[in-house]
Each structure stands twice: as C-alpha cells, then as structure tokens.
Design a protein that fits this description.
By secondary structure, the chain is an alpha/beta fold. It folds into five domains: 4-111; 124-298, no CATH class; 308-435, no CATH class; 443-717, no CATH class; 728-835, Immunoglobulin-like (Sandwich). It contains 31 helices and 29 strands. Strands 21, 22, 23, 24, 25, 26, 27, 28 and 29 form a nine-stranded mixed β-sheet that branches. Strands 5-7-20-13-6-12-11 form a seven-stranded mixed β-sheet, sandwiched between helices. The radius of gyration is 36 Å and the shape is elongated.
C-alpha cells in the first residue's frame, strides 16, 4: 500500500469491522475521522459523533436495527474523545455499549500512531523514529514521504529484488549470482549505507567497500540486536557499547533472523556466522552472569543454556517447564546439527519416561487386585513404560557415543524407571506366590502350536511359516505388529511364557504336544533338561527333529540369516517352514549397552523375510518367542540378591530349581504350582527385579512381567499387490556438500511425489549408510520421525524432513546413503558422500 491512510483502513479498521460487525473508533486528536468517513457505503454505516451527540445516538440505534435485520454488513461509530477506561467513564459515555458488543480502536499499545507507522514502513524504523521525536503526531503526508523516491535503484537492479527487506537479506546471504553482482562494482555501497541507516538505525563502521566487509558488520549488528532485544535483563556492561539497533527496529531484526534460520538455503551460513560472532564478541564469558536468556537462541551458547535449564528442571521435577523448552527447540536452527539433536532427543526421552512412570503409578492401584488384572493392565498399557525405557536407553547410548556429560539426566531416567518397575514387580511377585503360573484363562506358550499352527497344516494348500525369535518381549512384538499391517491381516496375542524363562525350555514349549507332555528333569551333571515325553529337547537339533519326525518332507527349517543371505531354495512340498532367530538374545548377552539400537536390524530382517515368504507362496506367518527380558542399566549400581539355603540349580542367575527354603529376599513354591512338571520339587527366585550376580543389566530366566508376557503374532499373508507408485525422493547434505565432518550428519529428505497412483498415500523408507562392499556402516538415529523400533521414516508427498544419521564409530572413507523400501530393500534414491572428520 502506498499510503498510511490506506494501510490503517485495510489492515486495521476493516479486519476488526469484518470480525465483529461493529467498530467504535475513539480519536481525541481527530486523526482518523476522514478515514472513517471514507468507509461509509451502502453496506457500511459510519456514525460521526463529532457533529451532534443526540443525533448521532439516534443514527447509531437506527444503524444497529438495520444491522440486526441484515440490511447492513457493518457499522462504525466515530467518537472524537478518549476511550473510556473505568466503569464510571463507560457509564458516562453514550457510545460505550457499541464498544462492549463490538471491536474498538485503539485497543492496546500496538494501536498507538507510532506503532502503526512502524508496521506500515518497517524498513524505515530509524527515520520514522526521528520524525516522531520532532512531532509526536506527524501528518499522514509526512509518513507517506518517508523512504519515498525510487527507493534503492542500484541495489534493486543488482540483486533483482524489490523490497528493502529482501535487499537486506541479500546483503546478509546473497545467492551466487547476487554475490557476483555485488563483487562486480562498488556503486551500490552508498545506497546500502543509507538503507542500513534508515531501516535499522545502523551506521557502518567499516571503511571497506567490498561486500564481505559490509556483510561481516551487518551480520554482527543484526544478530547481536536480536540477542539484546530478547534478553529479559539488562545487557552486561562489558557489551553495552557493541552497536545494535534501536528498539523500534525489533520487528525487522526478528524478521531477518527468523528468515535466515528457517530458510534451509541459509541455515548453514547462519550457524557458522553465529558461532564466529559468539566467539569474536566473547559472549560466553561476558554473559556468564545472566540468569535468563529469553526465548530465542540466536547464538549456540544460548542453546546450551536452555539445555542446562532443562536438566535443572528435570532434577527439580518441573516437567511442565521442560516440555515448554522442548517445544521451543522443535524449530531451532541448532536442531539441524546432529549433536544437538542427540542432546535434545535424550531430554525428550527422559521426560517421556518420567511422566509415563508417574502417570502409570497413579493408575496402578486400580489394576492390582489380582494377577490376571495386573497382566491385563500390562498388556493394555503398562508395557508402554518398558517401550519408553528401551527408547530412552537408545537415546542414552547415542548420547554417550558423543562423549558428552549429561550423566545426571541419564541417572534421572534410570532411577525413575527402576523405582517404578520395582513397585510393579513387587505387586506381581506377591500375586504370583499366591496364584501360581500360568494364569487360568490366558494363552500359554505351550498352547501356541496346537492353537495357531497345527490347524492350518490340516487345511489343504495352506503353507505356514513359523518364525521362532529368541527374546522378543511383548512391547517389541507390538512394534513389529504395527509394521506388519501393510503386509496382510495381522493379529497379536499376549501369551504366558513357560518357566524357567530360558531359551532351551522356552523354545521347547513351542513344540507340538508341549501342553501335555513338556516336563523338566535335572541331569546327573546338575543341568536342567526339558523333555517332550521321554524325548530330550534341550538343543536346536533335538527340537527340530521332533518336527521333522512329525511332518516329514512337509517340514523344513533354516536360520533367518540363512534364509535372507543365501536364498536357499524351499521345496514346494514344504507346508511348515521354521525360521530361527537368536540375534536379539545374543546382542543383549554380548553388548547390552548397544543392543537397544540393534533391535532395529532384527525387526528389519523379519519384514524382509515376510516379503520373500509372500513371494514363495506362504499363506500364513506365526511369530512366537521363548521368553522376554529385563533390561536395566540401573543394575550396574550393584542390585543383586543372595541365594537362599538349599540344593539349587541356578538358571540364568534369575531362578533356582531344586530343594531348599525361601527367605525374606526370595520367594519359594512347589514347582508344579509354577507350571513345571518333572522331578523338580521346588522353584525359588528373587523377590526384587534383580539377578543373583552383580553387574547384570540384561537378564531373563526368572519371574517378571517383562520376562513372562510374550507376543504371538499371526499374519495372514495376502497376495502382494503391484506397487504402481513411482516416488520422487531426494537426499541431500548441506545443500550439496560431499564431505561430512561429524559422525552425526543431518540429511535433508524430500518426498516430492508418489506418482500418478500414489498421491493419497504415504511412503515408508529405511535410511542406511553403505560402504563400497554394501556393508551397513550407519543408519538413521532413532529420534523424531525415525521409528525407534524399526528405524523407518514415513513421509507424505511434498514433505521435507531432516534426519540425523549415525555413522559407525570405526568407519571412515567413502560411503553411500540409500533410501530403501523396508520390505524389499530396493533403493529409491541415494547420495554419495565421504568422511572428513576433524581429529
């Protein structure tokens, strides 16, 4: 708009009138009378109270009736007096009623004349300020004349932009063409000096006439101005002489900084500029005494202050403040730095876990009357705490790899989870001692084969795959079930594992006939051996032999890895294919601190296997497991239980089988009461959620919800539909950079479209880093949009996200980041990069 009058009418008065239908304008200086009268029309009635108070009151009442009957669309009451504030003033004002039922102008500090003029010409803040200093109520014509003429013709021509704002942005962060144009001549410098003076109140100090000198000073002036504007307290004396803009330029400064941070073309430049300015001005030292940094994080040291404040609030259990801080970090420019994402990912993981533990602690009494009700509560929702704890440990593992020091925050998460899980476990053990195991009315693992597999083998033409996964606890089964929904009709059931919850017994419980014939004996050497009738089934060969004898050539078995890597041909006569997986258990046994992040690989393998089973004509898939597990790094603090006296076989440091007595630290019961048949007289175990050996952070074999509630997933494989989508997916790193300097690089992932037949759907992708030989040397870090269990990302057409990749610590060299179909592992797109770490 070319005039302040039009700006006031169209941007201030009319929006309020359209919103409320009635607008009362109070104007003791009579500045806006003509503007109001200009709005009078057939649809809008303007009542001018400056002529006759009695007549104008009658006209206002008439206009109000016409408004009510829809003959008018709005009415404006112009009152040449100060707006009434007190109740007494409102009673004396005959037009106050119109203000009460409609909109009012002015309304608040933002409606004063100076503020309106600054909004009208935000590029001329300094000049407007000077005019108002000479005349507190300058005529409209004076405001219209500010910044008049042809503007900044040389700069506009060189930079190919129109507004002063766009010129300032181009001076700060020019495109390659704009930078070339600026370097090609110096004629624009005088215009730039005047523009900076008028718009920002900035007087250039540098004598240099090249773009680089001016840009350096403009960056420092702009960023430091934003920093000072946002400070709730006074700027330190040591920084008081650093040049900065007047307060009237705040809206323009905020606009420039917000644009530079939000535009991905300028984000990396902003980060490097802010880091250098912070260092040049010594902000960390000079601002060390500040107690409040405001809401914006102009400089990186402010983000570190927000992080420290979030940790402090977590220590003080002020979770509302932490949540507010996290919301502010979602759009922070520093989130494009991988190390920053890791830190804030850990904060969020701790907060989610702590709040979940508190929420479920309040609900626990309502579900603790019996063992059955406690199990139902765990299956329905309580297992969320285990999921959040696993995701928290993944975030902690990622963070510790960066060699940072948020140990206090990590301790908070572990302590809250440990305390709450012990409370739940105490309830579970007390019910377990009274009720025994398994619980009536619940599915037992010993029933799985007869219930879910054998009936299918009696149907002609049915081909069933049975994936026996070692250590797939219930919350992980739910994550897998979510991912399998697109592959067919999927159902998940909660089953009760067989005691002791060890691999040899648990896998034996999944064999046919286990419900009636599974029994456990103690060998002469003191080992616990499971038997199916009189047949020992303690190892893979013995267990698979049971199935082979029962089904002959209709049966085949292979490890999951062999099925995926060697593509062994499966005979068409095979109606029951067993795929065996021990990866989760092995990883937790050998690398417990890293294992949570390795779970993704296991679930990925299962999904790929399902795709290949579909292609080979299998109709149904059953996924079952031997036992769950407890994962608690709090155990490193020395949580341990002493064994009670007696003649015991110690199973996995979590359960005792044999003869003896219980004590205050250990429960004991007849083995049959715990569902154990055979020559074992008694069963005993720790009352606490601890093992018999110190230092164990991963354990199973004993009695707990996490060890004994396991998933059974039934997937009815449907004929795989042809995928007619042709996704246009792009990967890029730092606007085309080819070398990474951090082991946590952040990539831009953009789904531009899904092709003609896929616009209404979304796309799930798996991001992996491969070396020249195809080995995985990095993956997407589990946070934000990345599913912590599967490592996949789901995008909609037109969406663009930033994803942090986590490079394997030992790898350096050239690599390729690939966006893969998670079920077929075919590549949608890729980008070639190379490491260039600074040692």
């Amino acid at each position: 708009m070319n005039s302040i009058g039009e700006f006031i009418k169209q941007e201030i008065l009319m929006p309020r009138l359209n919103r409320k239908e009635i607008l009362t304008v109070y104007d003791p200086q009579r500045c806006y009378r003509d503007l109001c009268l200009e709005l009078d029309s057939e649809e809008i009635r303007v009542i001018d109270a400056s002529e006759s108070s009695i007549l104008s009151r009658e006209l206002a009442i008439t206009a109000l009736r016409e408004l009510a009957s829809a003959r008018l669309k709005g009415m404006i009451v112009y009152v040449p007096a100060r707006r009434p504030i007190s109740e007494e003033e409102k009673q004396q004002d005959p037009f106050a009623i119109y203000g009460a039922c409609g909109a009012v102008f002015p309304d608040g500090d933002g409606d004063d004349y100076l503020s309106i003029c600054l909004r009208f010409k935000p590029d001329c803040v300094a000049e407007i300020r000077q005019v108002f200093a000479e005349n507190p109520s300058p005529p409209f014509a004076v405001i219209d004349a500010i910044g008049g003429g042809l503007g900044w013709p040389t700069l506009q021509a060189l930079l190919k932009v129109e507004s002063a704002r766009d010129i300032l942005l181009a001076l700060l962060c020019p495109s390659s063409n704009q930078q070339t144009a600026l370097k090609g001549q110096e004629g624009w410098v005088s215009e730039a000096k005047e523009l900076l003076r008028v718009s920002l109140g900035m007087k250039l100090i540098t004598k240099g006439k090249s773009w680089s000198f001016i840009a350096d000073e403009l960056w420092r002036f702009t960023l430091f101005s934003e920093f000072v504007f946002d400070l709730p307290e006074e700027v330190p004396d040591s920084l008081s002489q650093v040049p900065r803009a007047p307060i009237e330029a705040r809206s323009l400064v905020d606009y420039l900084c917000d644009t530079l941070r939000s535009d991905r073309r300028s984000q990396n430049i902003y980060i490097s500029r802010a880091e250098k300015i912070e260092q040049d001005l010594g902000l960390v030292l000079h601002c060390s005494g500040l107690k409040d940094m405001g809401r914006r994080d102009t400089f990186p040291f402010e983000e570190r202050w927000f992080l420290a404040r979030a940790v402090k609030c977590m220590v003080e259990n002020d979770t509302d403040i932490v949540r507010e801080i996290l919301r502010g970090r979602e759009t922070s420019v520093w989130s494009s730095i991988g190390e920053s994402q890791v830190q804030w990912g850990l904060v969020k993981a701790v907060l989610d876990l702590v709040e979940a533990c508190a929420d479920y602690q309040r609900l626990l009494p309502d579900h603790s009357k019996s063992l059955a009700s406690l199990i139902d509560f765990y299956v329905k929702s309580l297992r969320q705490c285990d999921r959040l704890h696993r995701e928290f440990e993944q975030a902690a593992g990622d963070y510790l790899e960066t060699r940072a020091t948020l140990n206090e925050l990590i301790d908070i998460g572990r302590t809250h989870y440990h305390r709450f899980s012990e409370q739940v476990h105490d309830l579970f053990i007390r019910h377990f001692e009274k009720s025994g195991w398994p619980v009536a009315g619940k599915i037992s693992n010993t029933d799985v084969f007869e219930r879910f597999i054998e009936p299918r083998l009696k149907e002609k033409g049915q081909r069933t795959a049975f994936i026996m996964v070692d250590a797939l606890r219930y919350e992980l089964g739910l994550e897998l079930e979510k991912q399998l929904k697109e592959d067919g009709r999927v159902e998940i059931y909660a089953a009760l594992a067989q005691l002791p919850s060890t691999t040899r017994v648990g896998m034996a419980s999944l064999l046919p006939g286990a419900g009636d014939n599974l029994n456990i004996k103690r060998s002469k050497e003191g080992e616990i051996i499971p038997y199916l009738g009189d047949t020992p089934v303690s190892n893979v060969s013995q267990r698979m032999d049971v199935l082979h004898k029962r089904y002959g050539q209709r049966f085949a078995e292979i490890t999951l890895n062999e099925f995926l890597n060697y593509k062994k041909k499966i005979s068409e006569d095979v109606d029951l294919l067993v795929l065996r997986s021990t990866e989760i258990d092995i990883q937790f046994e050998n690398n417990p601190e890293l294992a949570p992040s390795l779970i993704q690989d296991m679930l990925k393998r299962i999904r790929v296997a399902i795709h290949r089973l579909q292609a080979r004509g299998f109709n149904e898939l059953i996924i079952a497991t031997d036992h769950g597990f407890v994962f608690n790094l709090e155990g490193q603090a020395g949580g341990v239980c002493s064994k009670p006296p007696g003649d015991w076989v110690n199973e996995h440091q979590r359960l005792l089988l044999g003869q003896g007595t219980g004590d205050l630290s250990n429960f004991m019961m007849p083995a049959q009461m715990a569902g154990i048949r055979g020559d074992i007289p008694h069963l005993a175990g720790p009352r606490g959620l601890v093992p018999y050996r110190s230092g164990m952070v991963y354990f199973h074999g004993g009695v707990s919800l996490q060890e004994l509630i396991v998933p059974v997933i039934v997937l009815r494989l449907e004929e795989e539909p042809a995928d007619n989508r042709t996704p246009t997916l792009l990967l890029s790193y730092k606007n085309g950079a080819k070398k990474i300097t951090t082991r946590l690089p952040v990539l831009d992932v953009s789904l531009q479209g899904l092709g003609l037949f896929g616009q209404d759907s979304d796309l799930e992708i798996l991001l992996e880093v491969h070396d020249a030989k195809g080995n995985v040397v990095g993956e997407a870090r589990s946070a934000g949009r990345v599913n912590p269990a599967t490592g996949t990302i789901t995008l909609q057409a037109g969406e663009r996200v930033q994803v942090t990749m986590k490079m394997h610590a030992e790898y350096e060299g050239k690599f390729t980041v690939k966006a893969l179909n998670p079920t077929t592992l075919t590549a949608y797109c890729k980008v070639d990069l190379e490491t260039d770490y600074v040692v």
